[in-house]
Amino acid sequence: MNNNKTAVNPSPHATRLLLGCSLAALAPLATATEGGASMYPMGAENYLSGAMPPPGMYGTVYAQHYRADRLRGNDGRELPVNFSLRANVVAPRFVWVTERKVLGGSLAFHAIAPLVDLKVSLGDDSQHKRELGDITFGPGLGYHYSEKFHAAYGIDFFAPTGRFDRDDLVNIGRNYWTVQPVAAFSYIDPNGLNVDVKTMYDFNLRNRDTHYRSGQELHADYAIGWGLGNGWVLGVGGYVYRQTTDDDLRGERVENNKGRAFAVGPSIKYSSPQGWFVTAKWQQERAVRNRAEGDAYWLKLVFPF
User: DSSP assignment of 140-163, as one string?
Assistant: First the structure.
């Protein structure tokens, strides 16, 4: 400890202590932020992320398979630890778009409850859990600036509803609240260019059991594709992630620990004449710092009730 700053030692023992703090549902694991994960599942959104539907009730089901076998340190090099992570997630989401207008936008509410099957191995230790993760909920406003350009703004709250045990190798619940402002934009052309960006900023509160507070995080999901005129859009998608402030343990700053990542891969969408649509993508993580590096496979189905 020097000048009230705590340096991170990327040894297997230190890495295990960090991993033992927590693991977020739907997200990768390593050393940046507590447990090296984030509340938000990076890359979850795809096409139409900023286009709020007409008033009514809608269901969404996210499905993800994530796998990682590498941990990257602050210099981007692979850490010398025997590590593997496998996660399968199904996350139902309920969306209610009301008839009410607020500041000229359509008022909506949503909630997500992730169901997680997670297995992590680190050195000679391993743990497997199946349980409910942390629930997300929040309000939003939707705008339709033109026939093709749409936007949605909101605030999401991540509640510590999942179980947490500081002595476990991994936890699906993170044991603290996160507040996340959101701004999403969609440019939609069934016969041409489609561009979607969902930008988020995370304010993480302190874990009362470990006295650890993860740094603030800026990230965006994106998708770029071309509409074929028959309901199909083909292109690429992924996410960009950057931790903007240092972690804090009992009021002391944790140095050289900020996470960073970029992911890209093929992305497709099909919209049906009946009003439902499905998206799918495979994203590979690159340029990773202080996090796990792996591959994610996503499916998302949206349907009206």
Answer: EEEEE-SSSEEEEEEEEEEE--S-
